[in-house]
Amino acid sequence: MELPLKELNELVEVFNEILNDAEKAKADNNYEAAEKVKDAYYECSVKLAKLIIAKGLGESEHFGVHTVNIAYQMEEITPINSKNKITKLIGYIKEVKNELRRDIDKAKYDFEIGLPITRNLHLKKSLSIPEYDNIIIDIHNYGLNMTSTRKTYLNLGEEDIRNTILNTLNTIYPALKGTGESFNGEGKTDILIKNENFESIFIGECKLWKGVEYSVNDGLEQLLERYTTANDSKLSLIVFNKENDDIKLVEQRLKEGVMTFLTKLKLKPRHIIKYTEYKNLFYFECEHNKNSDISIRLSVILININ
User: Fold this and answer.
1) In Å, what is the CA distance from 51 to each residue of 20, 47, 66, 115, 151?
2) pLDDT digit string (tens) for 107-162?
3) What's the DSSP call for residue 218?
4) Of the candidates 31, 148, 203, 208, which lies 20 to 30 Å from 258 by C-alpha distance?
């Protein structure tokens, strides 16, 4: 997940300007100017709440407080006809500005060290493409943290590494239901996310890199032919490279292997350049082998912990 740091910091500056205007209105005993400041404060608060909700951070411990309706504050100080009400307005502005500054700093630190930032995602049906992209990017970013702390994972097997990813997803998306080794289709998937109606919306298969036959062919055979039903279309193959130092070669064999396997199944695959700013993340689309009305979206994530 990428935090909207630029937008949040800009809002801190706006709140700071509004605070300066409020203090000037108090010093000048200017109630008309204070009314304009009050309106600006309300508009900025609404803008902040909309940004947090749009970025899926509405239930985050870091930013959820900023989505609270401030109508009660407006009732207490409207109309502004005394210095006491201007003082209250200044207090409100200071509080939200200082809290937002602290929350940005804490979220930035937590994100940098690998702690998850909760997303507000409630689904009754399937994932939209942006929602699917967010899950893929969250897994990818967690993989980057795994790379930077690789010693922690070197002695872990597929299942144990899978569990760390699954736990992270369940923390980021508390409203969804992510499980491991869960039945779907004709077998047990490594990662299965269900919506609020307990319908599968995302399937992930984890493999150690042991060459194309095991890591790609076996992984995709499990994903496409065993676990995927006619209603599943958002998939991911997650590959952990623990031994091969030639990362470029692994990337090349991984991409070529996926295209070859999907072509053999006559699914007309397309390797689409989509996640351009993310290394070791590849996106494919192909026909659905069990439902001609929908396409399969497959993201392949390479996590290097060698």
Assistant:
1) 23, 6, 10, 21, 37
2) 776 666 555 555 555 555 677 787 788 889 888 888 888 888 888 888 888 888 88
3) I
4) 148
Please name which of 272, 304, 257 lies closest in space to residue 129, comparing C-alpha atoms.
Answer: 272
**Which residues are within 8 A (CB) of 91 and not within 5 positions of it... i.e. 6 or more apart?**
none
Tens-digit pLDDT profile for residues 44-103 = 999 998 888 777 666 565 676 676 667 778 888 999 999 999 999 999 999 899 988 888
Burial of 192 (0-12, 13-18, 19+ CB in 10 A): buried
Do 89 and 159 belong together in one domain? no
Query: What domain range includes position 262?
Result: 129-304
Contact present, 218 and 279 (Cβ < 8 Å): no
A 10 A CB-CB count for 36 gives 15
Residue reference for tokens 């209250």: 88
CA-closest candidate to residue 63, choices 33, 34, 28, 104: 104
Q: What span, in angstroms and rounded, lies between the C-alpha atoms of 229 and 148?
A: 36
User: In terms of domains, do 41 and 80 share one?
Assistant: yes
**Residue 122 falls inside a structural domain:** no
pTM score of the predicted model? 0.61
